[in-house]
Each structure stands twice: as C-alpha cells, then as structure tokens.
Records
---
Amino acid sequence: MTSKEMLRHLVIQQKIQIEKSGDFVKRSIFSQVLAALDDNRVIILAGIRRCGKSTLLKQIMQTRKDYCYVNFEDERLLSFRAEDFSILDEVLIEVYGPACTYFFDEIQNVEKFETFVRRLQDSGRKVVLTGSNASLLSREFGTRLTGRYKLFEVYPFSFMEFLRFQKTKLSKETLYIPEEKVNLIRLFGRYAECGGMPEYLRNNDSDYIQTLYDNILYRDIIARYSLRRQRLVRELVGILASTITLPFTYNSLKKSLGLMNAITVKEYISYLSGAYLFFELLRFDYSVKKQLNSPRKIYIIDTAFSAISGFSLSPDKGRILENIVFIELMRRGGEIFYYAGDRECDFILKDKKKITGAIQVCYEFTKENQDRETGGLLKAMAEFKLTQGMILTYDQEDTLKSDGKTIIIKPVWKWLLEGVP
C-alpha cells in the first residue's frame, strides 16, 4: 500500500508544477473539450506520448475553480494500486479542498482505475483523464462506463497549431498576399520535415525523439504486453516505417519477418496502433468481409519520427504529403478509406452511410502523371456519384472539368488552413 505521507508530498509537488504559468499554444480541440465539461460524462484525452495532452489539461484546468490533479506517470506511483485511491482522495481534499473536477494524467498505468472513476462519477464529480493507450482505455471503459464517457483524440500539432507555435499571424487575407504566401510555404516545408511534436519543435533534438520512441516501444508495448521478442517488434516497426502509405498484407509482413503465421503480426500492429504510433487504413468495399481481407495501408503519427535511426520515410515527398493529409483527416474525424479498382484513389471520406468526398495526393501535378492522378480520382467519383473531387499538391492551384465533374487542385498547406478566421 502506498503511504499517505508520500502521496501528500507528491500531490503538493505536482500542484506547484501544474500551477506554473506557461506560454501555451491554443489547441483546435480546446473549445470542443470545454463544451463537454457541461455534461456528466467522463472526458478522456487520448493520444501518443508527449503530443500535448498534459498541456491541454492545464489549459482546461485554468477554466475551473474547484479541481484537483494527479499525474500517474510519476515513478513514485509505480506501486500505486486501485485500493490506494481512497487514501489518495483524502490527500487531494487536504491539499486542494473539496473538488468538483478531478484531472488524472496517464491513469491507464493503474490497474482497475475505472472502478474509482465510476465511483467519482456516481457521486457527482466531473472526471477528466488522459491516456496514451487507446485499446486499454476503451476496453476498461467499455465494460465499466458504457455510454458514460466522451473520448477526444489528441494529435501532435496541426499545421495551424504549428503556425501558432511559431507566433505567425494568420488570417484569410494573408493566404493571398505574395510575400506572406512565400513565408507560409517555407514554414510548411519545415512542418513537413519536423512534424508537430511540441517538445521536439522547442529543442530540435533528435535524441529527444529517440528517447520518446524507446519509451513508447518499451513501456507502452513491450512491457505492457509482456512481449519477449523485442527484436521482432523493432524489425516490424522498421518495415512499417519504410512502407508508409503503401499497401501491405499481414501475410507479406509475416514472410518478411520470417514468421510461421500472420497472427503475431496482426497483434503487434494492433499494439502499435493502440499506442498511436501507426494507423491502418482499410480499402473501401461494401462487403465488410472483403474489406477486412483486402490489403491495408499504413501511416505514421508524425514525420518527426523519421529522425530515428532505422526509420525511413522515403525521399518520395509525395508520400510524406500523403501521410500529413491522412493525419489531418484523422483530426477532422469521420471514416476514412482508400479506393482501389483498376485505378486507386488515396482517400475516400465516409459520413454515416454516405461517401462524401474523394482526395488524391501528389507532390506535383504534371502532364506526365495527370492520367494516373486523375484516373483513380475520377473512377472513385463515378462509383460514388460525386460531382467534385480534390487533388492536393505541394503548391499548385487549379480547377479541372471532366464529363461534368470538377477536380479542385489545391496546395496541401492551404487545405490545412481551411477555417482560418
């Protein structure tokens, strides 16, 4: 059992740390989370380690008066157990006073944490949690708090948030001023290279990313799931990183890794996805069975991880652009697929039962690749009866007409800034 004195000392220290003022970048998701504080559901902020969840938590806490906070990532809480929550609650009341809102960072480190959260919720308390393991959080809350929680997924900085971090003044007018446009393109080039991990952008230290990667791999995957074949996990990550945006099958990866069956590959990729390091994209098909059996595509959470030794995000800049577009689509929500018939379209967007959009990504749209890039897009548009599609490039803008259909060609950086006031 964790001692009350140690918990009191820890809570006081964390209180001092969390109340320090800081220069925060306003996250686009902030207002949505704030609005959700008004109902009685548990709020979960989930995302990869160090993507800014704790900072977002601080921003939310600044809007509340009666709150308390604990970060379970603290190594002094390694022996903390579910039965210690009662003592912790006493300490929190002593340090903070009676609290209406409980903020818990990385709570998935405590087994059976959901029982205490349920008890707090039943007593009328508001609970806001962060976690870096999607599958663990959803499994625990799926059994204990079905329908009683709201999940927000937090990603590394978007391009708009990156510009806020760079203190770049932005308005709709600046997108069309020549000198401002040149600066935005330059900044987008840096964003494409460095990604949006907040701390990495502050220190530009590749050792930081290496350490973060090791923590994700060992703490969130190898240790959490008691995996003995550490070398196999690293080899799989290396293969996935080098095949970003490309189709793959579990069987093809099985052969590359020299395994006897594909079940291990499937499990390991689910662990990597649960830790928000990689994401799988399914091929669209009206048959769920065919969809699940078709090749998938893989994407990485942030281009910052290309700095890791052994990672290779290909010199193909078009694939880097496609990865950026995919992560932005994830931020915006909705279902995403890729389309493949005799031609391929990078992204198909689905809202409920309806296909609402089709997007193709290429670094540069030229006469040489025009047939390939428009072919898959037009095929998808025809199949789903879409009158408009989009091709996103590095820095080209145009409109094409074909058989009554419209193709908008737009720079990725400008698409990323849609919604600028």
---
Amino acid sequence: MDFRSLLPLQAVDQRIAQLEHRKVQLPEHAAASSAAAALHTARVEAERLVKRQGDITGEINRLELRGKELDAKKAKYEAQLKTVIAVREAEALQHEIAGVAGEHSSLDDAELILLDESETLDKRIVESRAAVPTLEAAAEQATTALATVLAAVDAEIAAANDERNRLASAVDGETLALYEQVRTRMSGAAVGEILKGSCGGCRTSLSVKEQAEMKKVADTHDARCPYCGCLLAV
C-alpha cells in the first residue's frame, strides 16, 4: 500500500466537500426563497381581498333584498292603518311600522359600512394586483440567478469529480478501499503526513518513539495516528 498516493486524492475530496457545502449555503438560495415567498404572499393577499369583496357584494345584495321586503311590509301596514278604526288596532300597526323602520335603519347603517369597506377594498385590490408583476419579475430574476450560480458550482464539482476519478484510478485497490473505509468514519482528515513531528490530520505532536513506531509499520493498516486514527503517510 502507498498512503502518500492518497494525499492528492484526499485534497480533491476535501475540495468536493467544500463545493457541496458552498452549493447548499449559496446566498442566492435565500434570495430566491424570499422573492418566491413575497410573490406568494402578494397573490394570497390579492385573492383574499377579492374574496372579501365578493362576500361584501353578497351581503349588500342580501341587505338590499331585506330592505325591499321591509318596504313592502311597511307599505302594507300603512295601507291597513288607513282602514282601521279601533285605536288599539291602529296602535298595534303603528308599533309594527316603527319596528320595520328601526330594522330598515339598521340595515341602512350596515350597508353604508359595507360600502365604505368595499370602496377601500377596490383601491387595495388595484394596488395588490399592480404589485404582482413586479414581484413575479423579481422572483424570476432571483430564480435565474440561483440557477446560474448552481450551474457554475456544479461545473466545478463535476471537474473535481473527474480529477478524483483520475487520481483514484492511480491508487492500488487495497489502499483505496482502506482509505474509503477510514474516510466514512472520520470527521476530519482520513490520511495525513507527519509534519514537524505532528500528525497532519489532528495536529497532535507525536513523540520520537511514536514516530519511530510509525516508520516501522509504514503503509500498513497499523500506520495510524494514535490520537485521531487517521492513516499516516510516513
């Protein structure tokens, strides 16, 4: 086995990992998400306003229909009032007429409130709809920007993977298999050199005795840092 042949391969693997992390953390992701969220919120709000406007229209129609019913009822009572002679009966009709008038007045007040809200809604609907095209353009622009950056990063990753395949093909199968096995268990470097008396993986200083022992088992399964467990290229 030749652990030193793993060093350039590990360097490429680290670069690929950095690129993958960069790909996930691109600020364009947040920008695209924010733009999409703003567009969605605007569309939902426009739909809500239109629905409320429809509800108001329906309620106004109901009030107007009820108002016509009250007008008819009042006209009937007033016609009856002209024909009655008994005081008690006339008082009863006058009481009914007053009740109808009171209800009609309440309906009119409610309708005025709804009409005011409807007028305000008309303006808000126009403003809301006018904002959507701008937000659509912003969302499209942010999505395009994200796609462009992702494509560039993907191209770098693809190139790095091509380089990795070339380097891996030059490593003997046993060494490569051991490297892959160790790499899956390590959070840091899977292979390192002894640099100035320290492990190149965890930077821990190795004693002279430990360095001598590593030289005895160089390029074997036992050539590992006693502190972090990475393979040591002696």
---
Amino acid sequence: MSEGYLSQDEIDALLQGSDSMSDSSFFSASEPLSENEKNTFKSMIQATVESQSSNLSMITGKSVILGAPTVEVRSKQQFVGELPNEIVETKVDFTDGAKGEHIFLLNTDFSTRLASFIMGQEKIELNEAALSGLAEALSNIAGATATSFGNQIGATVMITPADCKKILKSKIRFPEGENFVKVEYPISIEGEKPSTLIEMFQLSMVKQMTSNQAGDGMATVSASKQGGAHESQMPNLQDLSQMNMGGMFGGQQGGDPMNNLVSTPSVQSVQFPNLQGGAPAHEQGNIGLLMDVFMEMTVELGRTKKLIKEILGIGEGTIIELDKLAGEPVDILVNHKLIAKGEVVVIDENFGVRVTEIVSPMDRMADLK
C-alpha cells in the first residue's frame, strides 16, 4: 500500500480470498516488526531450541547446548560489516505453510569442529564431505523448526534440501527484501570453545506467521467470552457481539446470535497427555507425508575391485573373492546408503536377512566421504 491506496497486486489478493492473503508476499518486506510481532516470533523460536539441541547432540555424539535466542531486524549492509571474511552458509528455505528464505551462518572454525564430530574424525578440512555432513545436521534442526512452526500456526511447513557452502561474506545469499530477521543463539559443544549460530529469516515470512498467531489469539479470546456469557445466562449487547465473533472465528459460520442464548455449550474436563515415553511431536511432524513413498532396499554381501582384463576374463565357474569374511554381517542399504547390518537366513525356500545392528548417525555421515 502506498499513499493510502491499494496496489493492483493487493487488490487481486483481496479478490482471490484468504489463500492469496496468506502468502508471505502479501506482507511488505520493508515494514519492520512491531514489538508485539518480535516477541511473538521470539516465543515461536524459543519453542524450537530444545529440539534443535537434542538433534545436534544426537548427530555429533556430544552434548550440544543452544542458549536463549535474540531476535532483531537487520539491514544487509549493516550486518555484512560485522561478519568475518569467510563464513559457512547453509541455505534451507521454508515452503508451503510458511514460505520464505532461510539461511544458517557459522564461522569456519566452529564449523570445522562441528563437522569433525559429525564425521567421527579428529582433524578434517571443510571439504565436500564435511560440508555435506554440516548440511545434514542443519537440515535436521531446520526440519524440527519447520515442524514446530507448523504446529504453532496450524499448517504444514516443509523445507528445501540444504545447500551448504564455505564462502566469502560478500557472496552471502540474503533473504529477499531490504531487511531480514536475524536470530542469534549462543552455541556450545561439550569440551569446545563456545560460538554463535545465526539464522536469517525472510521478513515477510515472519510477519505472515506472527499474523497467524495473532489470529489464533483472537479466536481464543472470543471463545472464552462465550463461556462467560453462558454463566450469566443474560449477556449484554457487547457479549452478543463477542458471541457472534466467536461464531466467525472459532465456531459455526453464520447463524442467529440469539440462538447462542438458549443453546448450552459443551463443557468437558481438560484432557492431559499421558506422561509416557515416545517420540515427541517435533520428531513425528511431517514424516507422515512420506509414509507411502517407495524406497529401494538392497542387501550387499560384499565388494571387490578387479582390473578390466580380469573382468573380461570372467566366465562360468569363475569364483570372485569378496572383501568380507564368512559369517560376517551383510550390509543393508536404502537408496544406496548404509542404514543397518544383518545376517542371512533362509525362510522356506527364500533368502532373508535378520537385522542385527542399526548403523549410528555418525557412521552414516562417514559413509558420505
């Protein structure tokens, strides 16, 4: 909107309805966050810290602690001047329920130490394998963040594949718009010097999500007003208005507000979840969307290398010696990635494999080399 007039894009969005209105592009990327929006987003981020720390601890095999985040709106030019000359950038954008660009930044020294724990090696360089390990680790915590955001705004939020690079600060791919939202966490790994993890969020996406949160708050308030009206049985005109608003946001569409005077609302006891073990919500999240996807599973008995002249000499009756001993576990691969080991069994007249070991995340990362 400029000088009090709606642009053609904004008019089109209004005419097309709520779906277009929910797109992050509708929110101006140049408008700064209000204090209320900033606090709302900080609360949303704070809800992800525990799962992010847990995921990093599992991947590295070390105790990783993320501290309380700080949230602020920054300009690109101002921010670049505060960074070291070289930086490790990991771009993992959000799609669907909340669309926007999203980037992690880590200094190279801390990235090297983090990658060494992920790869299970003491001294490594930030080569392609190490960057792939960092990409998987940061993709995991971005996925946990997306799931948490989705639960909070009532939508399915997905992420793009992670793209991790060691670059000069002049090559950083900032989120679209003049300003962006910077989230900064103190991060420490057991026995290592503390550092800082920075996330950059597209401003328009943050405004979209905090707007959705505000909408949920209105629905909650109107619902509580309805409960108060039932207790007195004789609401005043303001209560009638609130009851009608409750029908718009939290109940049935339309209807005569006077009907709310004679209907008895359903009152139930609060149901608390059982305090039992199990996967937390952020680990279940969007995985249900992938349950029907087929993946190729392969059992590998062993491998060997041969010269071309030896391969050309293979014929019927040739015995090929493999790199595994008799009785040694066979490898179980999914999409050519090692996930488990097992032993060969016979089921009726068919071969099968009994799983004896699940490969640890660190071993899976070492397989990327």
